[in-house]
Amino acid sequence: MQTAPSIKPPLLPSLRPHHFGISVPDLDAAVAWYGRMLGFALEEQLHIDKIPARIAFVRRDQYRIEIFEVPGAAALPDDRRVPNLDLRTHGNKHMCFEVPSVGEAVAALREAGADIAFELKVEGNPTAFIRDVSGNLIELLEPFAADR
């Protein structure tokens, strides 16, 4: 007879999302894009000499995106701009935001000039990928059935 494994408390008893970091070639253009397209507001801008980098934190509600502009950084490779090709490279893939209606979100973003990578359904759940002004991928999805 098998016994159920004991459930251990998590190593980190408190854990909540704080921010996601991206690197871009033009900090000002990225801050403007995240404000115009996704409603993020500039929270703070600073320079870190040790990196060296210009950095901006943009925020919407309780979530932040940390945006880095590093002189001489390599451009985002073309295959990292396509969701299914990006999966062939290890590392972070995209940030994701839940929206009430993917179709309505994509229509509004398309009308505003956003770069729509593609739309699909994952196990019947509407999903879309867009690219920010620098080509970084962002996923939009509707709430999973379990979360409704």
Description:
- It is a single chain.
- By secondary structure, the protein is of the alpha/beta class.
- It folds into 2 domains: 17-73, Roll (2,3-Dihydroxybiphenyl 1,2-Dioxygenase, domain 1); 76-148, Roll (2,3-Dihydroxybiphenyl 1,2-Dioxygenase, domain 1).
- 18% of the residues lie in helices and 35% in strands.
- It has 3 helices and 8 strands.
- It has a 4-stranded mixed beta sheet, with helices on one face.
- Strand 3 (53-60) and strand 4 (63-69) form a beta hairpin.
- It is globular.
- The termini are far apart.
- The mean pLDDT is 93.
SS field, number of helical segments: 3
CATH top level label of the largest domain: Alpha Beta
Percentage of residues in DSSP E strands: 35-45%
Characterize the biggest β-sheet: 4 strands, mixed
* Backbone CA Rg: 18 Å
Task: Give a brief description.
By secondary structure, the chain is of the alpha/beta class. The protein has helices at residues 27-38, 83-86, 102-111; strands at residues 19-23, 41-48, 53-60, 63-69, 95-98, 115-122, 125-131, 137-141. The strands form 2 sheets. A 4-stranded mixed beta sheet has the order 1-4-3-2, covered by helices on one side. Strands 5-8-7-6 form a 4-stranded mixed beta sheet, with helices on one face.
What are its keywords?
single chain, alpha/beta, 2 domains, globular, 148 residues, 18% helix, four-stranded mixed beta sheet, 2,3-Dihydroxybiphenyl 1,2-Dioxygenase, domain 1
Mind sketching the topology for me?
Elements: E1 19-23, H1 27-38, E2 41-48, E3 53-60, E4 63-69, H2 83-86, E5 95-98, H3 102-111, E6 115-122, E7 125-131, E8 137-141
Parallel strand pairs: 1-4, 5-8
Antiparallel strand pairs: 2-3, 3-4, 6-7, 7-8
